[in-house]
Design goal:
four-stranded antiparallel β-sheet, 139 residues, 0% helix, mainly beta, globular
Length: 139
């Protein structure tokens, strides 16, 4: 057997509490300046019990909360800094016009923006209303 990843880093791991929650949809974007942006989301029946779920802004019409994380690394993935918890699942990052964005969904499509290279993130903007998006993007 060939081992493909002897040397790996754990960016996020769900708490070992016996609760039903799972880390989903990991994605890494390498910015033009070399910074890495990592996103993931937490699903499962008990994901709403995470402490960060209580700090999220619920969807404006459905009240839905999905726990999404945004991390950055400036040393090619050796260490990671949690930058934001936001209301999304199935997200991907991209750069445009001097900013970095995270596009995901919470039923409706939602986008978050950072204008300082991923250090801080806005509270998000819903791009659709009353829809039910579900996608695992390939990038």
């Amino acid at each position: 057997m060939n081992i493909l990843a002897n040397d790996y880093k754990v960016i996020y791991e769900t708490p070992k509490t016996g609760e039903k929650m799972y880390a989903f949809t990991p994605a890494i974007w390498v910015m033009e300046n070399g910074r890495y942006v990592f996103t993931n989301d937490i699903g499962g029946a008990d994901a709403g019990n995470l402490p960060e779920a209580a700090e999220l802004i619920p969807h404006p019409t459905t009240g839905r909360v999905r726990v999404g994380h945004i991390y950055t690394s400036d040393d090619k993935g050796e260490t990671w800094q949690l930058r934001a918890n936001r209301n999304f699942t199935h997200a991907r990052s991209f750069e445009a016009g001097g900013a970095v964005y995270v596009l995901g969904q919470c039923g409706d499509l939602v986008i978050y923006c950072s204008r300082d290279g991923g250090n801080t993130w806005d509270s998000g903007h819903y791009l659709t209303q009353g829809e039910n998006w579900h996608s695992h993007l390939v990038g």
